[in-house]
Design brief:
single chain, alpha/beta, two-stranded parallel ribbon
């Protein structure tokens, strides 16, 4: 069961909530909550700080997609979603963490369909 689900954008490959069983106190944060009127929001969920950040991709409207920086026990993790490498990302990483930020690539993510098939994505 998931305690936290972060949705970077509402394409089917990133937004099939039917694949996720939420824990009783589980929370879903989508791009709609993460960014309102162009402002990136922060959340405190289960002792995790979740901060929405810009995401850029030629196939996605930047007004409808976000990345997330999670702070867990003082460690920061960047959940990029479908974002491409950009100069803005480098500036964000450097200003937020002094350049030390772990990026969560999709290939390392847990995906329920892949897990059921006995593989990781």
């Amino acid at each position: 069961m998931a305690d936290l689900v972060l949705v970077t954008h509402r394409h089917d490959d990133h937004f099939d909530l039917s694949l996720v069983e939420l824990s009783p106190l589980g929370q879903v944060i989508t791009d709609l909550e993460a960014m309102t009127n162009g402002t990136y929001n922060s959340f405190h969920v289960h002792q995790i700080v979740v901060r929405a950040v810009p995401a850029f991709n030629d196939s996605h409207d930047p007004r409808e997609t976000v990345g997330y920086i999670l702070t867990i026990d003082g460690v920061k993790l960047y959940a990029a979603g479908d974002t491409s490498e950009t100069d803005a990302m480098g500036a964000m990483i450097g200003s937020d963490t002094g350049g030390h930020l772990r990026r969560a690539h999709r290939r390392h993510a847990f995906h329920p369909r892949a897990h059921q098939a006995g593989r990781t994505v």
